[in-house]
Amino acid sequence: MKKLFGLGKGLGSLIPSNMESTNTNKKENVFYVEINKIKANPDQPRRDFDEEGIKELSKSVRKYGVLQPLLVTKVETETPKGLDVSYQLIAGERRLRASQVAGLPQVPVIIRDEFEHKQDRLEVALIENVQRKDLNPVEEAEAYDRLAKEFGLTQKEIADKVSKSREVVANAVRLLNLPKDIRDAVRTDRLSRAHAKALLAFSDETKQREVYNQILAGGVSSKEVESMASSAKPKTSRQAKGKKNSKFIELEKNLGETLSAPVLIQSANPPAGGGGKIVIRFATLEDLNKIAKSIID
C-alpha cells in the first residue's frame, strides 16, 4: 500500500456535518491500494449501473487516473498464515468499476475506521448516490425504506441525512406500493417518476395497470393520469367534498394545521341530524403516532 499526501478533499463534501469527524483539523491521507484488495459494498443502495457509462468513465480513468479517491474501511481477517488485510468499499463504486475495466493495478483511497457498522455504510453510500443523482427513483425509495425498517430511522431523520424534506422522502417511499412490474418500469426508466406518482392516486390495481399500459403506449401525461384518477373517485365522495367546501373548509384547514396531517370532514348523506365524520389521513405509523399525540395532548 503506497501512501500519498495532498489529496482527499473532495469526498468530504458528500458527507453531512453530523457524520464528519469531530476533529475538523484532522488531515485525511490518501493511499494507493491494490484494486483486487477492495471488495464491493454489500449495502450499496444502487443496483443498476449503466455499462456504457462505466466504459466511458474507464476511458477517462485510463487517461487521467482516478481524480477523486474512493472511500473504504479496513477489514482485517485472521488466517493460518497471519493477518490478511483487505478493504471494503463505502463510496465510489462507479470509479472502482471503471478502474477495473481500465485495468488499473491500484486506486487512490481514503481509509476511514468509523464505518464498521452496516447502517453507516448504507448511509454514506446513499448520501453519495443521492447527491450525485445516481439512483433511480426505486433504488432511492428502497434505500430510504431500509433505513427506516432495519435501523428504525424516522422519515424526518432520513430527510435530514440526505438534505431533503420529509415530504420528499415520504413520496419516494410510496413508490414501493406500486406492483413490481410497474416499479421495474420506473427502475429501468421506461416510466417516469411523475407518472408513477400519478398512478398511486388509483386505489384499484386493475385500473392502475390499465392506465399504465396507456402511458407505455404514449400520449398520456402525468397531469392527465391525475385527472383520470380524480374522475374515477366515487360520486358520493365528490358530493361530500362539495358540501365540505361550502361548510367545513376553514375547519378542515385549522384541524390540518394543528395535526400536521390532511383532514377531511364529511357530512352524513343523507344528513342525519347534522352528523357526519372526520377523516384524518396518515402515510406511516410514525405519522399516526404524531397525530395521536397531538390529539391526546
TrEMBL record:
Residues 31-130 form the ParB-like N-terminal domain. InterPro entries: Chromosome_partition/occlusion, HTH_ParB/Spo0J, ParB/RepB/Spo0J, ParB/Sulfiredoxin_sf, ParB_dimer_C, ParB_N. The keyword DNA-binding applies. GO terms for cellular component: chromosome. GO terms for biological process: chromosome segregation. Keywords: Chromosome partition, DNA-binding. SMART domains: ParB. One of its GO terms (molecular function) is DNA binding. The keyword Ribonucleoprotein does not apply. Gene3D superfamilies: 1.10.10.2830, 3.90.1530.30. Belongs to the ParB family. This is ParB-like N-terminal domain-containing protein. It comes from Candidatus Yanofskybacteria bacterium RIFCSPLOWO2_12_FULL_43_11b.
